[in-house]
Protein: Glycerol-3-phosphate cytidylyltransferase
Organism: Oceanobacillus halophilus
Amino acid sequence: MRRYNIGYTTGVFDLFHVGHLNILKKAKEYCNYLIVGVSTDELVRNYKNKQPVIPFEERKEIVEGIRYVDKVVPQVNRNKYKAWEHLPFDVLFVGDDWKGSALFNELEEKFKEVGVEIVYFPYTDGVSSTIVKEKIRL
């Protein structure tokens, strides 16, 4: 496994669960310094068409409390290249459901030009914020 200096990942981190923790722990295993972009409430409303259960400031505070995380920043848009322009990182960590998508194939090419790699992680089976919400409704 290659070790990177600065890693970056993003998420909503609503109803924080073990799947979120696994992603952050795995990302930290790959880098010396991990920056996490937490999606703002406005961003979540704009692209998921729903309001997060937990407000942004609280989600940010939860992620800041995770020992694998070195810095938390607001994610105000989904453009990972713009994020890199403001927070130069060596590696971007994303879920493997994005692998092979047109968006990430293009992003891989752009990042290759500046020496940034993308590492895809599998999701934790049977765990998601949607599943947590469904269980709460029972």
Notes: Residues 23 and 112 are 23 Å apart (CA to CA). The mean pLDDT is 91. The first strand starts at residue 4 and ends at 11.
